[in-house]
Design a protein that fits this description.
The chain is α+β, with helices and mostly antiparallel strands. It is built from four helices and ten strands, in the order H-H-H-E-E-E-E-H-E-E-E-E-E-E. It has an eight-stranded mixed beta sheet with strand order 2-1-3-4-5-8-10-9.
Length: about 190
Amino acid sequence: MSKSLINGFTVAATMLAVMGGVQAADKSTPTDAQLIASAMRAAPARVAKNATIIAMGADGQMRTLRKGSNDFTCMPDNPTTPGPDSMCMDKNAGEWIDAYMAHKTPPAGKLGLMYMLEGGTDASNTDPYAKKPDSANHWIKTGPHFMIVGADPTFYANYPKGPNPDTAAPYVMWAGTPYEHLMAPIK
């Protein structure tokens, strides 16, 4: 895994507050086995079983819990935050996250796929960098879903782009920004 991709996953983990410690000696933190199980719930079993599993340590550095054999990397839920945050993404989605966190334009022509089959931390549908709800940022709740990131803008043309979407149907999140992406619920 490239240093850039690891950095992308580091910032993704930060973005999603996946910052639980990984030292098994501390009874309040999950064991590696628990972290791996949590990360694997983020994606379909056939994807997760061969994915690399990483987690952020108490020192803020990413560490590999299990080396995988496919192009997906999964991260566990943060047990200290409300709601599930486990996620799994392919290499292109990792690069997209890296660009997002650096406030840069995502790489062109690199379609990425991300899974959050347990749902995700609620977020603004209009402001990619909102940290909490307010009257202008259209905070939404998301259930189990997958995301398609990095698509050409024409891909999103036939999906709802409004600020208050029906999150039970596919919609575009962060429409009109370089980080717009398709949110597709799975029930």
